[in-house]
Amino acid sequence: MQPIKPRTTEDERQLALLTLPLGQPGSGMIRYGAAMYFYRRGMLDADMLEAHRICCNLDFEDPQAVARSRPANKTG
To answer: Under a CB-based contact definition with an 8 Å cutoff, are residues 19 and 44 in contact?
Structure first.
């Protein structure tokens, strides 16, 4: 997955939320909300969205590490 390149002011705001530091109380759910925003805009793939979903209640868990640890989702 390519890094997200913000195109709008809202993209910039959501990117700041997506990259909140690990361990901040509530940060997992906030990051998941931002991930959903980028997914709906076609800027984040389903595998990365799923990693954020897995981590949404785990503020200390790194979604990037979770995504790397999961097998790639192959369809077809």
So the answer is: no
What is the C-alpha separation between 58 and 27, in angstroms, rounded?
8
| CA 11 – CA 36 distance, rounded (Å) | 12
Domain boundaries, the chain: 9-69
Q: What is the pLDDT of residues 44-53, one digit of tens each?
A: 999 999 999 9
- Degrees to nearest 5, angle at CA 10 with 5 and 18: 65
Distance (Å, whole) CA 15 – CA 13: 5
* CA neighbor of 49 nearest in space, from 62, 64, 30, 36: 36
Secondary structure letter of residue 19 according to DSSP: T
